């Protein structure tokens, strides 16, 4: 057969004959498509009939005669493949009590190419140029997670996770090399490609921020920091790690000249001065403000209060994600509008906000929180959301901390 055949399995399943997409007919048979995917991932290794049956029909009986059902599926799938390209059905080869997928001479499969590159990378450890070429080819072939657009299956997800982990480990080694060689522009490009594969990978976010700082692109580094911390907070409900927070400090102090730092700080101060209401900040900034206030309280003989606000479903159930986002955004606007400029606010978790209130005494702090609660319920009267808060001084005061809960 003279056709050049390429099979894509990263992101989605597709067959290209002489670079033209020709797999539409397979969409009519989900079992047939799953059969092909499974056999290709076990290429040249016979898969026993019983294993095929348990894989393709895990929660059901294929029929009263499972062997016949499997043979019928094999026959129909071969016929469909032959319609796509003459002789393509011959890739499904019968063994004694098993089947396997046999590659044709002019056939390539992206996932097999990726695994071949991964297995051969060790040979290029000392040849940085060729090692880089292999990594570039890996990223080119990795158009998405393995079969992520296909029907979910445990066997595919396990293989997908293993491939993703191996690819990112190889890319990690390459980025380290680029940073050592001070090839920061290449490092930035590769990191962005790696984050397309796994946007939650904190290490690549930090590599990217380092490269941006080294090329004096501090605004981009700060944007990247905010994006990374937002992902952690939005999807996992966690604050940035200590390493990530250290990077924030590096970004803030990354100006290579005094003029740059002074100009940036001045612009920040002017912007803050023109804004009304409380100061909303990243958790890392809030933490710095908190610790600075702790140091100053005893020396200045002043008091500052820490408050926590948590919203929850009144029935104790988990909040719908869309409703939760709307409620938290609305609450943040209430706080920004109704608190003073000297107050600081940050997200502590997906359903909790932390506040620093430089107020005179506990009674005043409690009155502030009761007023916020009243405004909240006036704006969300039928939301079935409970508003809880806790407020207390950062150092010993005459009044002890209390806990208020909405009725």
Question: Which terms summarize this structure?
Answer:
14 helices; alpha+beta; 6-stranded mixed beta sheet; 407 residues; Arc Repressor Mutant, subunit A; single chain; Alpha-Beta Plaits; 4-stranded mixed beta sheet; disordered C terminus
Strand order of the largest sheet: 8-10-11-9-12-13
The helix count comes to: 14
How many beta-strand segments?
13
Count of spatially separate domains:
3
By helix and strand content, what is the structural category?
alpha+beta
Shape: elongated
Uncertain segments are: 256-262, 396-407
Q: CATH homologous superfamily of the largest domain, by name?
A: Winged helix-like DNA-binding domain superfamily/Winged helix DNA-binding domain
The helix/strand series, from N terminus to C terminus, equals: EEEHEHHEEEHHHHHHHHEHEHEEHEE
What is the percent of helical residues?
40-55%
From the coordinates shown, what is the CATH architecture of the largest domain?
A: Orthogonal Bundle
What does the main sheet amount to?
6 strands, mixed
- pLDDT averaged over residues: 83
**Proportion of residues in extended strands:** 5-15%
Q: Please write the CATH class name of the largest domain.
A: Mainly Alpha
Spatial separation of the terminal alpha carbons: 76 Å
Molecular structure report:
This protein is of the alpha+beta class. The chain has three domains: 1-176, Orthogonal Bundle (Arc Repressor Mutant, subunit A); 199-274, no CATH class; 277-405, Alpha-Beta Plaits, CATH 3.30.70. It has helices spanning 30-41, 49-56, 66-84, 110-120, 128-141, 154-180, 184-197, 202-214, 218-236, 242-252, 258-274, 283-300, 321-338, 362-379; strands at 5-8, 14-17, 20-21, 47-48, 92-95, 98-101, 107-109, 279-280, 305-313, 344-349, 352-357, 385-393, 402-405.
């Amino acid at each position: 057969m003279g056709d050049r055949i390429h099979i894509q399995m990263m992101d989605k399943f597709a067959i290209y004959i002489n670079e033209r997409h020709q797999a539409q007919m397979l969409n009519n048979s989900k079992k047939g498509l799953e059969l092909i995917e499974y056999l290709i991932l076990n290429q040249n290794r016979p898969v026993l009939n019983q294993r095929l049956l348990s894989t393709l029909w895990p929660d059901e009986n294929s029929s009263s005669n499972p062997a016949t059902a499997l043979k019928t599926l094999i026959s129909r799938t071969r016929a469909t493949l032959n319609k796509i390209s003459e002789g393509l059905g011959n890739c499904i080869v019968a063994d004694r009590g098993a089947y396997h997928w046999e590659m044709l001479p002019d056939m390539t499969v992206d996932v097999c190419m990726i695994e071949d590159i991964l297995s051969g990378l060790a040979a290029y450890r000392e040849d940085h140029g060729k090692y880089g070429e292999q990594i570039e080819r890996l990223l080119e072939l990795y158009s998405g997670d393995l079969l992520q657009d296909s029907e979910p299956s445990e066997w595919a997800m396990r293989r997908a996770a293993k491939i993703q982990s191996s690819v990112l480990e190889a890319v990690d080694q390459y980025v380290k090399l680029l940073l050592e060689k001070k090839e920061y522009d290449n490092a930035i490009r590769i990191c962005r490609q790696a984050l397309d594969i796994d946007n939650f990978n904190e290490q690549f976010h930090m590599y990217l921020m380092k490269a941006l700082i080294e090329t004096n692109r501090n605004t981009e580094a700060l944007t990247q920091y905010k994006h990374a911390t937002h992902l952690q907070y939005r999807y996992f409900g966690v604050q940035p790690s200590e390493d990530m927070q250290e990077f924030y400090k590096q970004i803030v102090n990354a100006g290579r000249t005094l003029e740059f730092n002074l100009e940036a700080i001045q612009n920040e101060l002017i912007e803050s001065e023109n804004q009304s209401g409380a100061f909303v900040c990243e958790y890392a900034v809030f933490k710095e403000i908190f610790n600075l206030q702790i140091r100053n309280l005893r020396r200045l003989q002043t008091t500052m209060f820490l408050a926590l606000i948590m919203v929850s479903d009144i029935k104790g159930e988990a909040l719908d994600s869309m409703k939760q986002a709307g409620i938290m955004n609305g609450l943040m606007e209430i706080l920004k509008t109704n608190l003073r400029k000297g107050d600081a606010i940050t997200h502590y978790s997906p359903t909790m906000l932390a506040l620093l209130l430089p107020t005179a005494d506990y009674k005043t702090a409690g009155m502030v929180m009761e007023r916020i609660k009243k405004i909240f319920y006036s704006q969300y009267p039928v939301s079935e959301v409970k508003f809880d808060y806790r407020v207390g001084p950062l150092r010993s005061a005459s009044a002890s901390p209390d806990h208020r809960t909405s009725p």
